[in-house]
Amino acid sequence: MTTSPDAVILKPNLYDLAPAALDAALRETVSPSFRAKQIEEWMHTRGVASFDAMTNIPKELRAQLADRFTIEMPAIVEVTPAAPDGSRKYLFELADRQRIEAVYMPMGDRTSVCLSSQAGCAVGCTFCVTGFFGAGRNLTPSEMLGQFFTIVREHALPLEQMNVVFMGMGEPLLNFENVVTTLEVLYRSIAPKRITLSTSGIIPEIERLARLERRPNLAVSINAPDRQRREEIMPITKKYPLEELIAALRRFPAEKGRDLTIEYVLIAGYNDSEKDAVALARLIRGLHAKVNAIPLNEDANLPQWMKRPNDAAIDHFVDTLVNHNVRVTVRRSKGLDIAAACGQLRGRSEARSRLSRQPELAERRVDRPGRIEPAREKRNPVHRERR
Ligand code: SAH
Ligand code: SF4
Q: For ligand 1, what atom is nearest to the CA of residue 128?
């Protein structure tokens, strides 16, 4: 729900309903039935945020709808200037004052919108600003659709040219039901193959996703070539071990023309050596997958030692994967100027107050034991010279 606390209780937000439930709710309230279709059209193909925008609906009916329901969306509080690649980050405020981020990314003749699924994240990856700030509540479908449709309306984007990625703040598979409802609404105008959900590897929910009739593309944040290092930077690995995750991905139903995406955040001197690339290639051998290498977005809230590798190191990592027959894309600078990895924009506005309230967080994450530096030299001495 996205309106005032009163409205949360009194008025359901129609964007929280899956298409069949919306249809049922409208048919109970609205007659003749073609009006229900018109209202659904205003919502699902135009993404309007007020009944008054529904200009072909009689004023009286609009007023009746507004008495019973809401279709409000989160409010924009900040939009960053366009990065060199045109991307912009949106900071939204929810009804309970929490802040979340979404990113608009023009990509030639298509446009991607990156959505947040939670107002924080309990998974706690050590390289992630959202993880640093800790758990937050699940977003409702209206809050996820609100991010999407607000950006679509702001830029007057045609829905048939849209891609959607759930790669913003939060772990979408820990908000499974709401994400599935959101997907069902998105499918009304966007093909499942145009939608990608990124997960840190919640195995039981990956299996639930596998059983759905219509599935988005799956991206999985692997980020380390072995279990020990993945446990260090992604503590969720202790619950869902890397080997079991890879086995679950092998069972995930492959669809024609679709690949899994293996996301791999490159951290200088930590997981970016030639040996790491070879180990990654071996780990994912036989999967219908491509790797998306993501050079780390540095941030003051992350451990000091976590740096983005230089371009030569990134190139060498990618070339090694390619030489091992792995398809790779590199996210070079998309949104880097606007602090692209989600959580960073909110992090800038919250960092000081949060840290002064919870200094133990700063100590826990900002400083890393010194043993990492020798490991960096041992693993890839050549990197030191390049830097
Ligand atoms: N929770 C989901 C989706 C949100 S995170 C997941 O983890 O997959 C989306 C992507 O951003 C993940 O691949 C994650 O590894 C990456 N990411 C997080 N922090 C980052 C940072 N500081 N720099 C670069 N990528 C980052
Ligand atoms: Fe959560 Fe994803 Fe960040 Fe990990 S990388 S803390 S799963 S948002």
A: 19
